[in-house]
Amino acid sequence: MQITTQSFPALLMDGIFLLDRKQEGQLLVLLKRLLLDDGAEVRGWISAYLKRQNSCDNHIEKLNEYFIKYSSQLIPMDRNEPLTDEVMLKALALLRVIAALRGFANYTFPPVLSSQLLDLLTHKTAQTERGSHYIIYALAFLIGLRSSLSLPSDPNNRNHSSSDTEDRIVIWLQGLIENQDASEPSNRLAESSVPLSSSKLYFEPLLLLAILFHTNQPGPITDLISNLLGLRIPSLGRTVNSWRKVLLQSVFTENMIATHAARVPITRPLSRRVSTHLPIQCILHLLQSHAFAKNRLEIKASEWIIGQICESVCPMHPLLPDLVEAHIVHSFGTTSVSGESTALISECELLSVFSPTGKFAIAQFCTPAADVDQDCAVNWDSSTGQWYSGSTVQPDLTPALLFLYYALFVYDYQLTTRLATSRHCAPGEQPCVYSDHLWEHIPITYLLQHARARPADFGPLYPRLLHLITNHFPHLTVGELMIQDELLLDPFWSPEHFDSSRPDPALRCDLSTNDSPGSDCRSSTDLSMCCTPAQLNEAFEAALAPVKTFETNNTGAALIKSEESLTAGRHLVRLISQLCRAVGSSGVDKLLPYGPVLGRQSARLLLVSGSHPLFSVNRRFVQLLECLWCRLYLVMPRR
Fold first, then answer.
1. Which PANTHER family match (predicted)?
2. DSSP codes joined into one string, 371-394
3. CB of 144 closer than 8 Å to CB of 239
């Protein structure tokens, strides 16, 4: 059915009731389409008609009778018998239509229907995922539409009726919390990396709602309830305000919030694309309000933080940097009160994150403590032409960037606190809880460049990260920024220089002769097909050997005629050109294993390039070497 002509709404309603008599359940399906699915124009048309009807009119009376009969069929006779998945599916359809009628058509619930809806909403559910979703919707319905649920009672004592409704809802909420306590062990935080069962998914929005009530945020509460209901109720703001005192005194106590937050699981995976009500929002609010310390809860928040950061992926969730900062500030501010509950992430834990055996192995080439020569020799597999530490998929460095920001913020916070209090370090006291050993094992420049190259993924973090690195490690950014500007202005790095459809301009100087039948890599940008670091080093040595020999005898003219020296030079130019193409198309990661060779041999070759007949006239080749060195400097620390 599709509404094209908005006329005769009474006739349409008669047709809907007629269809429902022929096929049970059609009334809910069609009303849902009219009110929720067919757009604002159709919804406004049918809502305007229903608003004009009063409770005694034919169609409103029929709706009342239908809803009362339908809801009574869904409620089990035995109060202890849980609602099945099939019943909950029908109940959700009924509740959505009734909520839409209330929100758009100002539908008034008759007292009998209110009583049955209250029974249906607070009835025991099956321990399934659908049962959890039903509880979430029931929670939003009871809080958002509480004023519409008036129980039948003495007409002269309407306040008593409202109090009975509140009491039943409070008892239901307390039961949900008690069920959570009974099903979860007291040491839940120690196992926080284990997700909650699907039947307890309702507790996350319940906890978030409790936090919002405690922090007195009616706007976010209204948004949360509206999102759960799928519509915005005009009187929702007033209903929320009237609920606050009751819920805070009877259900959402501060101790309850802090205790249950420790049991909230981490989100896997966490990114900006996840838009549901997340545990990270709960933990962040509790850290910022110091609820853990106020209630003296012995929890290890650092374990939860580590687990959540490790499960974070790009694009980065915007609350993660705030979570890092809140945990650090909370830790320093309350360590003396709650002991290990606010402990920082230890240096050993951070070092294990940046372990060379992990997924950051390639990045470890850029740490100050890295033995690049040994790492390259160990990690290169000559039989397959691949890196043991490498991967065909670019690793997600979101956790590494967050742990780097964590360490930097701790360092900055301690220094700032000392300056603000004019307290100097005692003899033998370190300025930071983390030693210099940690900074030697973090590829700071590499991670900074990774974040800079992906502003869409790391927009919330990169400005803060750059600010801290510039303040405390300026030697890593001042020269890097100058080189970055130089590379941006250099036309060599423009896209046309790496157009695979054109011959490489670096090969213009008679490179048609190959050194061996299997050495042709003119069209390849795969470094494993081109050469290994050892082969590149041999090419440098072969090109430099004739120079040293002829310089000793001072016979430069003979060098020009040496076919061996020209062949070695051409081969080296070809390999350097291949490296440039790979870096231009795949990024500087491809160049890292060649860093030691280029660092040693480039300087040697540039010093003697004037006496070599091929290199002295090939300015293009010299420019290639200079640019490769600049690209390496952007991510590898000065040695």
1. INTEGRATOR COMPLEX SUBUNIT 2 (PTHR28608)
2. -HHHHHHHHEETTTTEETT--SS-
3. yes
Determine the Cα–Cα distance for residues 568 and 539; give it in Å rounded to an integer: 7
Q: Are residues 520 and 409 in the same domain?
A: no
Instruction: Please state the pTM of the whole predicted model.
Output: 0.64
Q: Identify the H or E element spanning 333.
A: helix 320-338
468 and 587 together in one domain: no
Residues 471 and 507 occupy one common structural domain: no
Give CA–CA dist 240/405, Å, rounded: 38
Chain center to CA of 231: 27
Pair of tokens at residue 569: 């030079």
Asked if residue 59 is part of any domain, the answer here is no
Range of the domain at 548: 498-635
Listing DSSP states for 182-226 in one string gives: HHS-TTGGGGTTSPPPGGGTTHHHHHHHHHHHHTT-HHHHHHHHH
Cβ neighbours of 277 (radius 10 Å): 17
Q: How many CB atoms lie within 10 A of CB 356?
A: 19
Block residue for tokens 């229907």:
113
Q: Which of 458, 238, 434, 258 is nearest to 338 (CA)?
A: 258
Same structural domain, 630 and 506: yes
Q: How far apart are the C-alpha atoms of 579 and 599, rounded to whole Å?
A: 14
Same domain, residue pair 385 and 511: no
Whether residue 464 is found in the same domain as residue 511: no
The Cα–Cα gap between 516 and 494 comes to 32
Compute CA 520 distance to the chain's CA centroid, rounded to the nearest angstrom.
44
pLDDT by 10-residue block (mean), the chain, 639 residues = 62 85 85 86 86 74 91 91 93 93 88 92 89 90 83 50 78 83 47 43 77 79 84 75 79 74 78 76 78 61 85 93 91 57 79 73 70 53 48 75 95 87 68 86 86 89 92 75 52 45 39 35 51 86 73 50 74 86 71 81 79 72 80 66
Q: What angle do CA 352, 355, 357 make, to 5 degrees?
A: 125
- Residue 176 and residue 124 in contact, taking contact as beta carbons nearer than 8 Å: no
Count: domains in the chain: 2
Alpha-carbon span 506 to 522, nearest angstrom: 11
Look at residue 225 and tell me if it is in a domain: no
